[in-house]
Amino acid sequence: MTLSKPYDDSNWKEEYKSYTNSKRELQLLEHGANSLAQSWHLGSLYNNWKKIKGYDKLDPKENKGQLQSSLQDFFKKQDNVSKS
Length: 84
What we know:
The protein is mostly helical. The chain has a domain at 24-56. 54% of the residues lie in helices and 0% in strands. The chain contains 4 helices and no strands. The protein is elongated, with a radius of gyration of 21 Å.
């Protein structure tokens, strides 16, 4: 199963250069990340680029509700199991 994106992001770094004038961001876009913190920053820039282009609306929707319960619910279930 191949997950393909409905948009081409192969040249996103070059496109994003026109949206920033920060030396730090331009260097990061040109040379890539050298540390974990820089990779987080680069990921943030990528997400900003997707928002600018409107591609963030094409991302999968967050799973809300399924498999989410409170810790209180968990303890109640555990009490019911231990009483059985």
